[in-house]
Amino acid sequence: MTRATPRSVLGIAAAVEAVTGLLLLIVPHLLAKLLLGADVTGVSIVIGRVAGIALLSLGVGCWFGRQEATGGWALAAMLLYNVLVTLHLALVGLGAEFVGVLLWPAVVVHAVLTVLLGFAWSKSR
What are the boundaries of each domain within the chain? Predict the structure, then answer.
């Protein structure tokens, strides 16, 4: 069995976030409905697309940042992002006001990425 390296873990996380960013840019309505069970209109679509641009940028930056031997700052940025998103989405879900079919799976994916990135970051130090 192959061991996960900081580079491979960062690559997976970068790809997940870049795809999510693209989805927010292209179909913010669908992603909001699946994650939060809510319809978005007006300024919410604009904000969602700006978030999509940020996620796409983070994903692309970390994708190319993984080329460094340890992942460096790209690894730290992706770890921080996943820690905060895991906590935020879990709190949203516990509040039960905005819960879509993909909210808890998204929490799990981000929690797993947080653990993997945390191990990768500790190995790179």
Answer: 6-124
Count of all residues that appear for the chain in the document: 125
First to last CA, the chain: 24
Question: What are the contacts of 68-72 at 24+ separation with CB within 8 A?
Answer: 70/6, 70/124, 71/6, 71/7, 71/10, 71/120, 71/121, 71/124, 72/124
- Whole-angstrom Cα distance, residue 63 to residue 18? 9
Q: What is the DSSP letter of 100?
A: -
Question: pLDDT digit of tens for each residue in the chain (125 aa)?
Answer: 457 788 889 999 999 999 999 999 999 999 999 999 999 999 999 999 999 999 999 999 999 988 776 668 889 999 999 999 999 999 999 998 888 999 999 999 999 999 999 998 888 77
